[in-house]
Amino acid sequence: MTTRGSRSEKVKRIFQQFDTNRDGGLNREEMAALVVAVNPRVKFSDEQISAILDEVFRTYGEFIDGEKGLTFDGLLRTYDDGAGDVDRDFDALGLELKPLEDKNGISQASEEAASSSSVADERVMEPHKKQRTAAWAASPNHGIVFDDTWKLVDDLEILIKRLKAKQLKDGKIKNDNSDVFSDPGWSRELGPSTEISDKRVIWNESGPDYAAFVKELGVLRSRADRARSRAEAFDGQMAIGRVLYEHYLFKEALSWELFVCAWRHSEAKGEFLLALEAAEAGGNQWAYLLPQIHVNLGIALEAEAVKALEEAIYMKNDYADAHCDLASALHAMGDDENAIKEFQKAIDLKPGHVDALYNLGGLYMDMGRYQRASEMYTRVLGVWPNHWRAQLNKAVSLLGAGETEEAKKALKEALKMTNRVELHDAISHLKQLQKRKLRGNGNGNGEAAFITVEPSKFKIVGEKTTLRTELTIALDIRAFQRITRLNRCEVELIKKEMSEGDVPVSYSGSGVPEKSIRKASLEGILCKLLNFLKPETFVGAVKSINQKILAVLDDSESGRVDLGMFFAVLAPLCGGSPDKRKQIAYESLLWRPVNEGNTQIKKSDAQRYIKLLRAIYIPSHGISEILEIHGETDNSLVSLTEFVTMFDDPEWGFSIMSTLLKLETGDRSRHGRHVCATCRYPIIGSRFKEMKSHFSLCSQCYCEGKVPSSCKQEEYRFKEYANEAEAVKDKCLWFGSKGSSPAAS
Prior knowledge:
Layout: H1 4-18, H2 28-37, H3 46-59, E1 64-65, E2 69-70, H4 72-80, H5 86-92, H6 108-115, H7 119-125, H8 129-132, H9 135-138, H10 147-170, H11 178-182, H12 194-197, H13 208-225, H14 230-246, H15 250-253, H16 257-265, H17 268-281, H18 290-301, H19 305-315, H20 320-332, H21 336-349, H22 354-366, H23 370-383, H24 388-400, H25 404-417, H26 421-436, E3 450-452, E4 458-460, H27 468-484, H28 492-500, E5 506-507, E6 513-514, E7 516-518, H29 519-529, H30 535-553, E8 560-562, H31 563-570, H32 578-591, E9 601-602, H33 603-617, E10 637-638, H34 640-647, H35 656-665, E11 670-675, E12 682-684, E13 687-690, E14 696-697, H36 699-704, E15 706-708, E16 716-721, H37 724-738
Parallel strand pairs: 4-16
Antiparallel strand pairs: 1-2, 3-15, 5-6, 7-8, 9-10, 11-12, 13-14, 13-16
Helix pairs in contact: 1-4, 1-5, 7-10, 10-13, 10-14, 13-14, 13-16, 14-16, 16-17, 17-18, 18-19, 18-20, 19-20, 20-21, 20-22, 21-22, 22-23, 23-24, 24-25, 25-26, 27-35, 28-32, 30-33, 31-32, 32-34
C-alpha cells in the first residue's frame, strides 16, 4: 500500500514531469499530454480529450490557478478521489523515486515514511503470505486466485493487528485472546474453527481508533474495485469479507460497500447472481454473506425484489435493513398495508432506524394519514435533530392534518436548519393559504378553489407562448429526464462509448446487420454514462429507461437492443448544446453496421429513428406510428444538415425538443412575488399570464387547465413569460403605446 508520503511524492514527480513551463500549474495542453501518456494503449480523439479536460477543470475548479491551470494540490486531489491510480500512472511513465536529501544528508522520503504508520513497511517485516495465512486462502478451489489479492489480505491483517494493539492498550476489547489476533487460526474445513467460535471477540466500534480503521478499510476496498478485471475485483472483495468475518468484524463484513463495486462496474443482476452462486458453492466459507447478497440482489432485480428480500429475512429474521428494503419494495408494488408492517418490524428491531422512520412517514403521507406521518418525522428528528427534510415534511404533514399553527412552527425550525429555496416556497405557500382561507373543490385542505377548462378554450398570445398540449408533452419528457439524470450526462460521452466500445455485429431476424446488445449488458454501459449516480438512484434510472425506451426498442421481446439506435434515442435528452445533441444522434445512426462505409445515413433510417423518438417520448402518437412511412421507402442518403431539417420538422419531426430546452434553462427562473392562482405556490419556470383577468398560472396548472373559479370566461388568452425581465419589457412597451399606467400584472 502506498503511504501518504510516498503517494504525495509520486504525484509531485508526475506533476513536475508535465509542468513543462514550470509555472506551478498544468494548463490544458499539459494536462492533455498527461492523460495521453498514462493511457498509452488508448487512442483518444481531440473531442474525447477536450471532454475529459472540461470535466477535470469543472470538477476541480477550486484548484485552477487562472491560465496556469491545475495546481499540484488539485492533481493530488484527483488521485485521492480515485480519478486515477498513482502507482499505475507512475510506473507507466517510467518514473523513479529518487529521494531528495537535505543539508544533513537525510532523505526526505525516508523521513516521511518513518513518520507515517506505513502498512507497506509492516508488510515487509511480516512473514511471506503463504507462511502465515489460512488453509482456505491457499486452496486451489475456494481460496485466493490473484496475487494482488494476497497483498490486500496482508494489508488488512496489519490494519486489524494495529487496531487490536490500540484497543488492547486502552482496555476496550472484550473476550480477548492473543492467539486470535496473532494468527487468524482459520480452519482447514473452510469455516471458522471451533476454538475461535468459543472465544468470540467483541470490538469497541466507537472512538477514533475504530473510525480510522474503517477509513483505511475503505481505501483497501477501493483498491479491490480498481482491479484489472471483474473476477479479480470479486476475488479481492470476497477475501476482504472473509478476513473481516474471521476477526469478528461482522458490521464491516456485512456492509453494502462489499458489493458496491459489482454494482457500479457491471450489470447488477448478473453480478449478484454470480456472487450468490459463488457464496452458496463455497459452503460455509461465504455463508455469512448470503443475507447481504440477497438484500442487494433484491434491490437489483426490481420485479423479483420481494422474493429475494423475503429470503434474506428468512435467513436472518433480525436484519432490520432487509425489513426496511422489503417495505419499500412492497410500497412500490402498491401493497401499502404489508409495507407498513415491514417498516414497523424494522423499527421494532432498531428503534432509531432513520430510513424506516422517514420512509414510513412518506408512506403515511401518501395514504393521507397526516397525523401518523408527523409522528414518524418527529421520531426521525429525535434521532437526527438536523434532518431538515424530515422537519419540512413534518410541517407539510401537520398542514395536511389541519394544524396550521404547528405547521408554521415546524417550518420556522426547518428554516433554522437550512436556507434552501424549498423552505421559502413552503412558507410563502402557507402565507398565501392563510390570506385566502379558501377551500379547494371539497378537499378540505385549504387550497384555492379552481375549475378545470378544456384545451380548446385556452388561446395563446404571441409566438413565444407554448401551446398547452405541447407543454404537457415536454413536461413529461422533462420528468423522465429528471428521474434518469440524463441531462447531467454530457452527450460527448456517447461518442466516446461508441469509439471505445467493442460490440460485435449480429444479424436480426430479417438478416439486417446490427450492433445489438443484451439488456443486462446495456446496464453496464449506462453505469458508465451515469457514473455520478448513487446505486439506489441508478436503479430507479434503469427502471425508467427500461419502461420508456427499451420496451419500445425491443418490441419483439428478444432481450437484445440495437445499441446505435439506443444511443441516438438518448442523445436529445443528454447534456450539451442542441446542435451537438443532434450531431451525436446522427453519428450514432451512422455508427450502425447498416450504414457502414458511408459518410451519410439512409433517409429511411432517419425516418424510422424520428418515428421511434416520437413513439417513445410523445405517447399521444403511440407505437403504431413506428410502422408508418409517409410515401415510399427512400434509400437515398441524408447529410447532417438534411437530418437536422427532418429532426426539427414541426409536424413529423421532434420539434418538441425546443420546448424541452426552454424547460431545462428555466428550472431556476423565479418571478418575484408572483404565485400560481390555483396551487398558490411561487412560480418557477415560465409564468403564464391571462391577459383579461390578469391572473398567472405555473406550467403544471396551465397544462392541467386549472383556472380560479372566480375567473370564469368563455375563453382564456395566455401569454408566456420566461422571466420577469420579459414581463417588465412588455409593461414598458404597453405603457409607451397607451401613454397611461399599465394594467396590473
